[in-house]
Amino acid sequence: MSFISIQDVCFSYEEIEEGKHVTNAVDGVSLEVEQGEFVAIIGHNGCGKSTLAKHLNALLLPDSGRVLIDGDDTAVEDNTYAIREKVGLVLQNPDNQLVASIVEEDVAFGPENLGVEPSEIRRRVDAALRAVDMYDYRGHAPYRLSGGQKQRVAIAGILAIQPQCIVLDEPTAMLDPSGRQEVISTLLKLNRTQNITVVLITHFMDEAVLADRVVVMDSGKILTQGTPGDVFSQVELLKKHRLDVPQSAELIHKLRGCGLQIDKIPLTQEDCVALLEEAMR
Ligand SMILES: Nc1ncnc2c1ncn2[C@@H]1O[C@H](COP(=O)(O)OP(=O)(O)OP(=O)(O)O)[C@@H](O)[C@H]1O
Ligand SMILES: [Mg+2]
């Protein structure tokens, strides 16, 4: 059984937004995520990414279908507490997630709420801050940190709960390039060294290419999924659904259109340069 098992989930919001009733924000999604996987979810605005993310820690419950976390059904109320310990959610704006006036107090907030004993809280807070490389800032005021540092403190706050999985909903959308880089390398490190499952929702294709698997959503459904190489080779399909592809993939795709013979679609600048050098020889 996969760590996350999403089985034919449909969900629609009750409220009416901008005068129209939104039918099925998530529309028949099935998706399995293994423990230790790094999955990126992409898709244009309003396709249902955030709605799906909120199903992963029982913030939303399916209208039909089910979501199992480590075998436990999110719709069973008795499971909610355990599920929220297993799956932590990090949101876009770090300012909305930091609650205390000192970094280490902020990180302690989660385990305190769980009733963890003080010596264990101290140990978890230190370990979490070290894991995101923010230990030296433990006595600082969060509001004085950069965006990337704040978001790493928010991730440490989730880590202190010792989840098996972190779901991040566009965690880098409000960050500058160096902040984005800090957050993404932190996630890769947590995934590789601590086997933490990562589900990363992002608009940045250069982040998605780093995942083990990319899931593309469109109109509440999964349009396609696969390795970054598989998904970003489908340049026409992605463009048809108003999605970007990594710049290097785009360039080679265009050059192919002009008659250049290159079979592979590169995902990074380095791959792209290597392919072009080869083609010019
Ligand atoms: N609280 C809400 N009430 C009513 N409709 C909502 C609500 N939140 C989202 N929706 C609608 O549900 C659909 C899916 O929205 P969702 O936020 O899940 O998309 P998204 O892929 O996360 O978009 P974005 O890229 O803009 O973050 C959209 O049509 C949106 O307008
Ligand atoms: Mg969203």
Word description of this protein:
The chain is of the alpha/beta class and 281 residues long. It has one domain (4-245): Rossmann fold (3-Layer(aba) Sandwich), CATH 3.40.50.300. 38% of the residues lie in helices and 21% in strands. It has 11 helices and 12 strands. Strands 8-9-10-5-11-12 form a 6-stranded mixed β-sheet, with helices on both faces. The protein has a 4-stranded antiparallel β-sheet with strand order 4-1-6-7, covered by helices on one side. Strands 2-3 form a two-stranded antiparallel sheet. It is globular. Adenosine-5'-triphosphate (ATP) is lined by residues 13, 15, 17, 22, 25, 43, 45-51.
Question: What does this entry show, briefly?
Answer:
With 281 residues, this protein is an alpha/beta fold. It has 11 helices and 12 strands. It has helices at residues 49-55, 80-86, 103-113, 118-131, 147-159, 177-194, 205-208, 228-232, 235-240, 247-257, 269-280, and strands spanning 4-11, 16-17, 20-21, 26-33, 38-42, 64-69, 72-73, 87-90, 165-169, 197-201, 213-218, 221-226.
